[in-house]
């Protein structure tokens, strides 16, 4: 099992839709998780952190399911500007390093 | 947040040559990281560069191929040596942010090897 796995997509959704995607991780000892957003031909930027049960920021909700070892990102009322690749990031156990998933590509359609 | 610049932003190089990528940060940082992002792939850590010590390389990356310099707390270079088409990729430098898991990335250097 890969350390971090994501469905590459693309997820094509209409404006206003709710979309969710998951990220599975292999290290059950992981305590914190992160979602990054990467626009086309741009660098990744931190979107949200996920600790314990979850986190919510406006239209974005990140949740953690420890039993099944996955985190999810839910986007409500999708905007065209949400179109991007969303990267799941997990700290490498016991180090300062981070493991990046391959990303899930989201396209919000007008 | 840290502001990071990279030079060059892109380059097209011939096989067998070397390219040095520069990374400049607007504040002093202890650790700088170099990543590679191949087409359609995620980010892979190449090495960690600490000022005043040798860089620490990840499995699959060696100093002879990717020598790194870290002369001060705001600057680092990554050289891609003896390039082959397989080295075509985006190379990004990053630094850690104040919060756990937060990293700031430079805009990347898009390298094409012909």
Brief descriptors of the model:
heterodimer; A: 110 residues; mainly beta; five-stranded antiparallel sheet; 11 strands; 0% helix; B: 114 residues; seven-stranded mixed sheet; four-stranded antiparallel sheet; globular
Can you describe what's shown?
The complex is a heterodimer of chains A (110) and B (114). Chain A is mainly β and 110 residues long. In chain A, 0% of the residues lie in helices and 56% in strands. In chain A, the strands form two sheets. In chain A, strands 2, 4, 5, 9, 10 and 11 form a six-stranded mixed sheet that branches. A five-stranded antiparallel sheet of chain A has the order 1-3-8-7-6, with no helix packed on it. The model of chain A has no long low-confidence stretch (mean pLDDT 92). Chain B is 0% helix and 52% strand. In chain B, strand 4 and strand 5 (43-50) form a beta hairpin. Chain B is globular, with a radius of gyration of 13 Å. Classes of the chains: A mainly beta (110), B mainly beta (114).
Give the arrangement of secondary structure elements.
The complex is a heterodimer of chains A (110) and B (114).
Chain A: E1 4-6, E2 11-14, E3 19-25, E4 32-38, E5 44-51, E6 54-57, E7 60-65, E8 70-75, E9 84-91, E10 98-100, E11 104-109
Parallel strand pairs in A: 2-11
Antiparallel strand pairs in A: 1-3, 3-8, 4-5, 4-9, 6-7, 7-8, 9-10, 9-11
Chain B: E1 4-7, E2 10-13, E3 19-25, E4 31-37, E5 43-50, E6 56-57, E7 68-72, E8 75-80, E9 89-96, E10 103-105, E11 109-113
Parallel strand pairs in B: 2-11
Antiparallel strand pairs in B: 1-3, 3-8, 4-5, 4-9, 5-6, 7-8, 9-10, 9-11
Rg of chain B from C-alpha positions? 13 Å
Helix share bin of chain A:
under 10%
Poorly predicted runs of chain A are none
User: Largest protein interface?
Assistant: A-B, 20 and 20 residues
């Amino acid at each position: 099992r890969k350390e971090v796995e994501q469905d590459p997509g693309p997820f094509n959704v209409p404006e206003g839709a709710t979309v969710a995607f998951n990220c599975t991780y292999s290290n059950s000892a992981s305590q914190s998780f992160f979602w990054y957003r990467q626009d086309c031909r741009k660098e990744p930027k931190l979107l949200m952190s996920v600790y314990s049960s979850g986190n919510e920021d406006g239209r974005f909700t990140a949740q953690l399911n420890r039993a099944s070892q996955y985190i999810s990102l839910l986007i409500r009322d999708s905007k065209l500007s949400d179109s991007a690749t969303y990267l799941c990031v997990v700290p490498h156990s016991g180090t300062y390093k981070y493991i990046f998933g391959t990303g899930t590509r989201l396209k919000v359609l007008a | 947040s840290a502001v990071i610049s990279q030079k060059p932003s892109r380059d097209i190089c011939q096989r067998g040559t070397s390219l040095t990528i520069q990374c400049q940060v607007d504040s002093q940082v202890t650790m700088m990281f170099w990543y590679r992002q191949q087409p359609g792939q995620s980010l892979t850590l190449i090495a960690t560069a600490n000022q005043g010590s040798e860089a620490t390389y990840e499995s699959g990356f060696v100093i002879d191929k990717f020598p790194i310099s870290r002369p001060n707390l705001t600057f680092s270079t990554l050289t891609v040596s003896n390039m082959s088409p397989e080295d075509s990729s985006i190379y990004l430098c990053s630094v850690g942010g104040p919060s756990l898991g937060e990293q700031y990335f430079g805009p990347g250097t898009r390298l094409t090897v012909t």
